[in-house]
Amino acid sequence: MHGVGRxxxxxxAQLIPVMIIATFVVFALxxxxxxxxxATLAGxxxxxxxxxxxxxxxxxxxxxxxxxxxxxWNALHFDLGQSLFSNEEVSTLILMRLPHTLLLVFYALILGxxxxxxxxxxxxxxxxxxxxxxxxxxASLGVAVPNFxxxxxxxxxxxxxxxxxxxxxxxxxxxxxxxxxxxxTLPAVALSTNVTAVLTRQVRxxxxxxxxxxxxxxxxxxxxxxxxxxxxxxxxxxxxxxxTVAGLQFNLLFSSAVIVESVYAVxxxxxxxxxxxxNKDFPVVQGVALVLVVLVIAVNLLVDxxxxxxxxRVAAST
Length: 318
Description:
- This protein is about 80% helix and about 0% strand.
- It is mainly alpha-helical.
- The radius of gyration is 24 Å and the shape is globular.
- The two termini are about 15 Å apart.
């Protein structure tokens, strides 16, 4: 456990610069977007003097590096500022919307895992058969299918035609967990398609490699039952691979959620950051970006910790 603790401290120190660079890049991209937020705030018929006043009020007249440095300093003191358009605290906006996005992401990851992992195992244990080829083909199709297109198809079929699920909207999981899951089902299914496909392919590939190893052939020659070989030795050895792939998919789901939330009108941080970026609402964009970066870093760190527990050599090598 001491090795795991040292690994966590080393990785934590390494990830601090990553967080700073990521927020700097996002701030720069928003800063370089065409349009003037001061002119938008001033209105259509505002004078140049009024626009200059707003620039000075919000610090838009200062150099880019000064604006970023001021924002970073405030963020280090847990002050993400206020929205330029609604005047609400950015932290409040994020806390209101983040649970919807997290529910979608976790829901999609669970759906992807409970379908992708068994399909990968089934394909690996039936290598070369028609079933294996069918599963592999479906996995390739799942990787290629866009989330937003599948989302539209699901809305058309299950919401508009059959009226099984709602087409849009969301319910807070803190108010009514059952209704929250009910509303999140269609967007979660749309999000989970790529997760299922990737896990299916990765589990199949990793399991085939393990099952073809020399020690597995030795175990089979000694008369060990196929089920014992698969569960005790095959799946145990690919557990770290499954965990790593799941962690990567968790991070990618946040970017996919931006589009899916728009299709289903889910009030999550994905729709919040897209709307704020279009309106050059710097504090909101930077606040959401910071929260997402911290979440991604935390997930990567947790994956490393669990991998170190599964295989102590990981902690020694990092």
